[in-house]
Write a structure and sequence with these properties.
- There is one protein chain.
- The protein is mostly helical.
- The chain contains 6 helices and 2 strands; from the N terminus they run αββααααα.
- A hairpin with a 2-residue loop joins strand 1 and strand 2.
- It starts with a helix and ends with a helix.
- This is Sterile alpha motif domain containing 13.
Length: about 120
């Protein structure tokens, strides 16, 4: 019976996750959420953008996106120059933010929307 208890405990967390998903299940697939954010960055609010960069390890820089009111649509329109100069960020983090985050998000968005 000890092994049965183990199985039961490992299944329970999955069940609760499933129930939560069902409650939010009214969202269609296009708007499905990842970490509480819409999958398509174009649908992100300013807070989603800020949380994205916080999660990515740019705690300090994330607030700049808040101050400049950068939402997902704005993020997708940002040029390298915008990121490097428009946010008053240090050059090092700004380069990483653009090359490893903003640019890939833009590329991915274009791919997904040209299908």
């Amino acid at each position: 019976s000890a092994s049965w208890v183990l199985v039961k405990t490992s299944i329970l967390p999955m069940l609760t996750v499933d129930m939560e998903n069902k409650e939010n299940g009214s969202l269609d697939v296009k708007n499905s959420l990842e970490n509480g954010r819409p999958l398509d960055p174009a649908d992100w609010a300013v807070t989603d953008v800020v949380n994205y960069f916080r999660t990515a390890g740019f705690e300090e820089q994330a607030s700049a996106f808040q101050e400049q009111e950068i939402d997902g649509k704005s993020l997708l329109l940002m040029t390298r120059n915008d990121v490097l100069t428009g946010l008053s960020l240090k050059l090092g983090p700004a380069l990483k933010i653009y090359e490893y985050h903003v640019k890939p998000l833009q590329t991915q968005h274009l791919k997904n929307n040209s299908l």
